[in-house]
Amino acid sequence: AYSDARGLQCIRVHVAEYIERRDGGIASHADDIILVAGASDGIRAALKLFKGEMKGKKSSVMIPVPQFPLYAATLEEYDMHQIHYYLKESKGWSLDTAELRRAVQVARFHSSPR
After folding, report:
1. Per-residue pLDDT at 33
2. DSSP string covering 64-99, please?
3. Which ranges carry the Aminotransferase class I/classII large domain (predicted)?
4. Cα angle vertex 25, ends 23, 30, to 5°?
């Protein structure tokens, strides 16, 4: 028999317990956890979920600038459009909602933001 594709149940239970302790008692459930062989495999698996066209337009995914190079390489490999949004260096590389809106508006002309 095959093991659970999400990872061993006993390990996912321990991970859920750790997350719950770390987050001050906010519930975490083993069934909501998927174990992967490193961050790169996890990122690739997550981005693959968005692959494909929608209404004749390529899928697109928002990625921050600066970014982890794996995002751009994986999106290129999956033939997906990158929506770059810029983080505010002057505010500790924080997000700016106006910048996110701008990036989505620009992307809508040539892709399908997901």
Report:
1. 96
2. EES--HHHHHHHHHTT-EEEEEE-BGGGTSB--HHH
3. 2-105
4. 80
Q: What is the mean pLDDT of the chain?
A: 90
User: Per-residue pLDDT for 114 more than 70?
Assistant: no
Query: Whole-angstrom Cα distance, residue 32 to residue 100?
Result: 28
Asked if 103 and 113 touch (Cβ cutoff 8 Å), the reply is no
The ranges assigned to domains in the chain are 1-35, 51-113
The reported pTM is 0.68
Termini Cα distance of the chain: 36
CA distances (Å), origin 22, targets 9, 16, 31, 87:
20, 10, 18, 27
Q: Which two tokens stand for residue 51?
A: 């692959």
